[in-house]
Design brief:
Layout: H1 2-16, H2 34-37, H3 47-52, E1 60-65, E2 70-77, E3 93-98, H4 117-123, E4 126-131, E5 141-142, H5 157-175, E6 181-186, H6 188-198, E7 206-212, H7 224-231, H8 234-240, E8 245-246, H9 251-261, H10 268-276, H11 284-293, E9 298-299, H12 300-311, H13 323-330, E10 349-354, H14 362-375, E11 381-386, H15 393-396, H16 400-414
Parallel strand pairs: 3-4, 3-6, 6-7, 7-10, 10-11
Antiparallel strand pairs: 1-2, 2-4, 2-5, 8-9
Helix pairs in contact: 1-7, 1-9, 5-6, 7-12, 8-12
The structure holds 2-acetamido-2-deoxy-beta-D-glucopyranose (NAG) (4 copies).
One 2-acetamido-2-deoxy-beta-D-glucopyranose is lined by residues 28, 111-112, 115, 283, 285, 398.
């Protein structure tokens, strides 16, 4: 018993702090562990080669250096197959897709061209750009640091909002000759743009923003595991033990998972959907590809910042915990708040959230909506509620093209 509790205390941050859909897949008509039915297929290739070119689409890779020295991989599908001859990237409107926590740009091309947003937008006439934030597989370089240095992992989503997001958006804006960019974020990819907007940043180069399962307030999230992890300060403890990189499939994590999951009293399958909510509409082939590309690393400090959001009903910068430390970093004893009410009202927003999403849960999303809608011009905000959807369905659901992407493209056409 005591041993199991000990193991669980390690397992919980690994599974529970995973604020993305990473481990929350559920296959239709199956209660078996999906990894048993996935063909083993190690993928040595990057996204362009492994997914995009495989379907015959053009794919370009760029490297963008942030102001704090991270070298990010940025992919581009400049045009689709349906009208490749008619218009190339030069005349098309750019769209930037920004993934959530613990995944990377692969999440936009996980299924076939009819199913995945990256391809659908390219075929729909858009110039598609796909971001990969610092720490993920293709963005683990820095001008002076290596991922082995603790300093490489000294960041949270504050830095994603302040450095990664502006760097890639500006790059796209420049590369396309100064065309304003449509933005699509999933999960943490929504929080960073809301944070930037709240400081009146990037508003001059973003044409509209789509928020898929927005994450901002996390105070009332429904996942008991995450609440527990946040309230017993697990990420903080692991950080103190010297973990700087948070790798959800690292060796330590695997060993613990393996051991706990063989315990008949622990049902790992249920634990996964207990984290992010039971996805209604995942297709096993898509979920397999998702697994083959694996969850991606983030920083332990980012995990701590996420748990701070869970513990406090306020969206603000990383809290160093001591007034003196906060003074040193921010010049004030408490971390500065991102005032979401001050997001400029004219930026067109398309927001969609799910009734089964434990992370972007309904009460927290309503709270966010009250903040946004009250301020917003009504023509410029559109909200879609999907009662059956959980976190992963928005990027992997087999019916997402019809239910989500189609109205999204209509929205783009109007803005
Ligand atoms: C699950 O799929 C099998 C065939 O693949 C089918 O025979 C069975 O009826 C399905 N079960 C449910 C509950 O849909
Ligand atoms: C964008 O392009 C302009 C001129 O074309 C240049 O001055 C500027 O430095 C560029 N910005 C970035 C972020 O590349
Ligand atoms: C899952 O995806 C495959 C490949 O795209 C497709 O053939 C199959 O019909 C899909 N299944 C469902 C339930 O949509
Ligand atoms: C947040 O922004 C709104 C709108 O600009 C403003 O009315 C409010 O006073 C701000 N709140 C704080 C705490 O600064």
């Amino acid at each position: 018993m005591a041993r199991n509790l000990y193991l669980l205390s390690f397992l919980i941050p690994i599974v529970a702090l995973n604020l993305q859909s990473v481990l929350s897949w559920r296959i239709q008509n199956s209660t078996n562990d999906i990894s048993d039915s996935c063909p083993p297929q190690p993928h040595p290739f990057g996204m362009c080669k492994a997914r995009v070119a495989a379907y015959g689409y053009p794919c370009e890779e760029y490297h963008v250096t942030t102001d704090d020295g991270y070298i990010l991989s940025l992919k581009r599908i400049p045009y689709g197959l349906s009208d490749a001859g008619n218009s190339t990237g030069d005349t098309r409107t750019p769209v930037l897709l920004f993934h959530g926590l613990l995944v990377d740009g692969f999440c936009w091309v996980l299924s076939n061209p009819k199913q995945s947003l990256g391809f659908i937008l390219a075929d729909g006439g858009y110039d598609v750009w796909i971001a990969n934030c610092r720490g993920t597989k293709s963005s683990r370089r820095h001008i002076s640091l290596s991922p082995e240095d603790p300093a490489f992992w000294d960041w949270t989503w504050d830095e994603l909002a302040a450095y990664d997001l502006p760097a890639v958006l500006r790059f796209v804006y420049n590369k396309t000759g100064g065309k304003k960019v449509h933005y699509v974020g999933h999960s943490l990819g929504t929080l960073i743009i809301l944070a930037a907007f709240s400081e009146n940043k990037l508003v001059d180069i973003v044409r509209s923003a789509v928020l898929l399962c927005p994450i901002a307030y996390l105070n009332r999230m429904r996942s008991r595991l995450i609440l527990l992890a946040a309230h017993i300060f697990l990420a903080e403890k692991l950080h103190m033990l010297g973990y700087h990189e948070f790798n959800p499939i690292g060796r330590a994590a695997q060993e613990v998972l393996g051991e706990v999951c063989t315990d008949p009293e622990v049902d790992c399958y249920d634990m996964f959907s207990a984290v992010a909510g039971p996805d209604c509409c995942l297709n096993s082939s898509t979920a397999c590809i998702f697994l083959q590309h694996g969850p991606q690393s983030s920083s332990m400090k980012n995990m701590i910042h996420m748990s701070q959001l869970v513990r406090k009903q306020v969206v603000r910068r990383y809290d160093y915990g001591k007034e003196k430390e906060n003074m040193k970093h921010y010049g004030q004893p408490q971390p500065p708040v991102y005032n979401l009410s001050s997001i400029p009202r004219h930026i067109p927003l398309f927001l969609t959230h799910g009734g089964q999403d434990f992370l972007g849960d309904v009460p927290d999303t309503r709270h966010l909506l009250r903040t946004l809608v009250r301020q917003h011009d009504s023509d410029d905000i559109e909200v879609m509620y999907m009662p059956d959807y959980a976190h992963g369905d928005f990027i992997m659901g087999f019916n997402a093209p019809q239910l989500i992407y189609k109205p999204m493209v209509e929205f783009f056409k109007r803005h």
